[in-house]
Structure formats: structure tokens, C-alpha cells
């Protein structure tokens, strides 16, 4: 479980394809503190450390993960938002994030608001997806590339978020522009409520 408060950025050092799996080797400021089997969110996707070597760590993404996320689009040198799993004795500064990305969205607009940045994202939507809780609500929570954010002005298939300068500088939001594909995880509470409603 994660909070959506990005801890750092990791840089992709190597990418290895093995059948339908992709092994990503990265480096980040806390790499020396990692252990094998540890869970780390990468752009919001929970992945397990499978190898530690010479200041780098390796995680494996399988086909299901690659189909639902932007990890298959990564190239050597790309920056990835990373967060280690939440400690239960700490503060929940963001919201409950599972690290189970639901789908991708595409940035369709970035606006400089004199101190902050406003991003607009568009995602695939249908009545069936809404029934499963894949939607956003005004002032609700959404996770974009692993960052816990508050939704503004949602429509049937778009939403906006506002990014403060600190988040812009310390996550890969500074590299997001129109056309960039991002990972989104909808709020788990909304998913449970949608599921309960469908059973009534």
C-alpha cells in the first residue's frame, strides 16, 4: 500500500525483454536501502525488487502490467516517480493508493498558471467501466504516475489537476506535455462504492 506521495525519481539504466516480461533496471537515491522482495511504486505501479547490483535495482513488469500502464513505453534515461510502501505507523499524507494502475490517460493540455501548472488528462470511459468505479469526481482523489492528486472539473472522460512548483520540480510532471501517456489509478473507495451500488 502507498500514499501517492512521491519519494524520489529513479532513472532507467537498462531494459531487458524476456518473453512477455520486461526487466527494468533503475537507480535512485535510496537504492542502498533496498532489499530483494521489497515493493516499490513506479509511476504508480507496484513492482517487486528482484535484483540488486552495483548501485542499481531491477524490477519485472509482466504482460498485464505493461498493457495497463505506460511502463512499456519507457526508454533508457527516462525518469520514473518512485515511492516505497507506506509504513503503518506514519501519516497518510496523500490517499490510499494500492499501486494497481487501472489504465492509462493522455495529457491533452498543460497551462502555466503563474506559479502552478494545470494539466488536463483524457482517458477511455464507458458505462461498464464506470460501473467498476473507473471515474473521477470533483475534489476526489486520483493517482497520476504515482502522485496523489485532487481532481478538478471532471467530465465523462477527462479531468484536470493542479501541480504546485515543488511537485513539478520533484516528480516527472515536469516532463509531461500534450500527448504524454500517464498511468492512472482511480480511488479505491469509489470502486467499492460503485461495486456495492451494482449489487443493490
Question: Describe it for me?
Answer:
- With 200 residues, the protein is mainly beta.
- It folds into 2 domains: 77 residues, Elongation Factor Tu (Ef-tu), domain 3 (Beta Barrel), CATH 2.40.30.20; 97 residues, Elongation Factor Tu (Ef-tu), domain 3.
- The protein is 14% helix and 40% strand.
- The chain is built from 4 helices and 12 strands.
- It has a 6-stranded antiparallel barrel. It has a 6-stranded antiparallel beta sheet with strand order 10-9-12-7-8-11.
- The longest helix has 12 residues.
Percent helix? 10-25%
Widest sheet, order of strands: 1-2-5-4-3-6
Radius of gyration: 17 Å
**What name is given to the CATH topology of the largest domain?**
Elongation Factor Tu (Ef-tu), domain 3
Give the termini separation: 29 Å
Which regions contain 5 or more consecutive residues with pLDDT less than 50?
none
Main sheet record = 6 strands, antiparallel, barrel
Q: Which CATH C-level class of the largest domain is it?
A: Mainly Beta
How many domains? The number is 2
CATH architecture of the largest domain, by name, is: Beta Barrel
Characterize the overall form. Answer: globular
Q: How many beta strands in the DSSP annotation?
A: 12
Helix and strand pattern: EEEEEHEEEHEEEHEH
Strand content: 35-45%
Structural class: mainly beta
The chain-level mean pLDDT equals 93
- Count of helical segments? 4
